[in-house]
Known about the structure:
Strand content: under 5%
Low-confidence stretches: none
Number of helices: 10
Radius of gyration: 36 Å
Distance between the termini: 122 Å
Order of helices and strands: HHHHHHHHHH
Mean pLDDT: 83
Helix content: over 70%
Structural class: mainly alpha
Amino acid sequence: xxxxAFEVSAIYDRLRKLETSAHENTQHWYxxxxxxxxxxxxxxxxxxxxxxxxxxxxxxxxxLNTQSAKDMQELLVKISIGTRDESEAAAVTLTTYGRYSIxxxxxxxxxxxxxxxxAERGLEALALTVPEDLCSNLGSxxxxxxxxxxxxxxxxxxxxxxxxxxxxxxxxxxxxxxxDLIKRADAGGPGLxxxxxxxxxxxxxxxxxxxxxxxxxxxxxxxxxxx
Length: 227
């Protein structure tokens, strides 16, 4: 006997089962073993590609660093033993290495006049390319009170800071404090002893030279100061 209500209910049940089956297939296809295998392969391939690229990059960087170190060493040798023109040319060429050239150039301020002059020219050139790094390093040199640097080096640094316009708050404070040190040293007695204890190879002549350079540098940095 035909029962409309029963038939409608049966049709509804079949449609609901088909819809549920389709929904499950749509939602859970990614849980299949095939997809997991494919996804794992893709991830491994991507990781391998990334790792290989990083290793190749690291290798190239090591080669570049090694070559750069050799080139810098050759330039430093020219600064040390070359003629005045050769030393200055090598110092300026060294500045192509940017902030990495600052420490070796600062070190050369402590040697003979030709080396020191060449290093000063190089450091002045760096004011055009890496002014912040230059001023920060020069400030650290001037702030040092362990006799790490000679009085002549300090005087050169003062001169370079003026030429490089190292007008940052930290650098100006350092220059002021050094000016106070020189002012005390200029008075003689304990002040001179203090200066000689914190700056290597310091003499009364260095005090006069430092005062002259400080006066000019403080003017260039637009700082009011009177000795």
